[in-house]
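Tutorial handout. Part one gives the primary structure; part two gives the three-dimensional structure as tokens.
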Amino acid sequence: LLRTAARRIGAATSVAVFEDLGVQQSPNSTLCSYLNKMLWILTGSFAKRGGQHLHSSFAPLFRPGGVGRTPVTGAPIIGGLMPS
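Part two.
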């Protein structure tokens, strides 16, 4: 089963994978996330039609300049997120 899946992924023109909280809450979550991303990078499926793309919520992180500072501590607001 594993070899068949690997062959199909390797032969596909593009690959997209989905990772959810179940993986993120397991003992080897960092390794799982790393291997998940390596799958779409090594198959050439990143930023390709039908392949993997970063979620649009990450776009503000790469915009030049900040969007302000938090009112209480003056910490920078990064990607619309404020530290608690």
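Part three, for discussion. The radius of gyration is 18 Å. Helices lie at 2-11, 21-24, 29-42.
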